[in-house]
Amino acid sequence: MQQSAFKFCKNSFRSFHPENINRLQKLIIFLIIVYAIPSYAQLGGRLNLLPEGLGLSNHLEYSYNVDTKREILENWLNLDYSKGIFTAGLRLDIFQPNDPDPSISRGKDKYAKIDYKYFGVDIGSPTEGLKILLGNYYTLVGRGMVLSSYEDRSIRIDNNLLGLQVSGKYAGFVLTALSGMPENSQAERKDILHLIDLEYRGLKGLKIGATYASNLPPTEGLAKTDMATVRLLPSFWKLDIYGEYGIKMNSDIQQRVFNNAESKIGEGFYGNINFYFGQLSLLGEYKYYDNYSFTSEDGTVNYNTPPAVRIEYSYMLPNRHPSPLDPNNEQGYQVAAGYRLDMDTYFSAAYTITKTLPSSSYYQRVRNINIPVETQLKEFFFHGERDWSADLTTILALAYNEELSTNTKNITPIFEGRYYFGGINTIKLIFEHQFTTERITNEQYYDDVISIEYLRSPGFSFSVVAEVQTKEPESGHIVRKFWGFVQVGFRIGHHTDLRLLVGTRQAGNICIGGVCRYEPEFKGVELKMFTRL
Questions:
Q1: What's the pTM value of the predicted model, to 2 decimals?
Q2: Which of 69, 127, 130, 159 has the most crowded Cβ, counting Cβ within 10 A?
Q3: Residue 181 · residue 163 · CB < 8 Å
């Protein structure tokens, strides 16, 4: 049966064009079912279906919105192979159609292509050796102050580079050099990024690093943009510290704006301190990003994503009014503390503030503007957790934020309860209430979300989520809107996870690490399937 599947795969790929995506869609689903059936029948142990060294993973997302009559199918099929010192792989992307947002679709309406492929050689040991990677690749340098090339499908980020990366380790030194081309919003690779990074790890409790990068624009006559940073990572006693300072240079802007009186056109700094003492943990972060974005010439590819210094929430409503990271115009800090009172009680709290930069900043001088400093984001979060017994846990939380881009103030109390029974069963209840004030119009409204979830470890979950928004646009005239959905998740065998959502979901932003994507209101069916072989 599996040989027939591979023959079907081979014949289908002979005519590999966008108009054949229906056939490819059926092919992928067919292959997943072929592999799922024998593995589902053998739940007692893992079944090796692929040759040694070969790995397969597939991510399928399908949705149908009954209001807009819009159907979206997206599929990413990865094949990876390793043999000795060699590694190779590819990713087949299939869209029919892709998400209509142009920042996501990049012109790939109906599309089927191998968009990611690589070949690598790893010589030597983990401490001394040479690694060469040719093709598409992702890489993170430091904390992303110069380069953060990664993929996150939740927010539709994929800024992989196509080119060559070489990394060598010897006597405590790690030297990395790369050249690569990112894909812009038109699915074209034009800019060329060069980078070299050197880090020394030979001192106990201290790492030192330096990075230099240069982006060559495709337009003839335009100057390249250069980035340079130095970083220190000391660790001693009960302290872990990270500090990185970087500068941005471009000869065109230096001459046109500053008459060559400035040696740089932007700068950035990020610092982090972690302190641990018994049951107490403390965190402090500081950022200063002044005209520090590092992008392709057309601005559609972000090479760097410096630390956002924002609170990451695991609940729905506190994420409803996010503040996207702006690496050109931010300064601020975050302080956080966690304390375990006893084995059953834990408290944590965090406070964050982000402000825009003054008129003396590179950001304002390059743009020839004069805008006073404003508070872009202010937020506070408290979390208290108590285990009353081996079966019952409760959580009380409070989120508060003021956000400039939507000019809202939000107060969100949260209750969560978990009940464990039978060793593998959990019932989880979450109630969130958010009171919002529009700071310009002074309009006030509130949202309520209740979520009830049943989990049976490790292979089944069922949840019901309901949301109501109450507004009073005119005195005495109350308007309520309702959303709700049912979500079921289950596992086939040891390798395939499915998640099915049916219902309605309010519009909102999805943010990870300060990078946000707007998700429109949805009413319909959504299926996600993840397979790993």
A1: 0.88
A2: 159
A3: yes
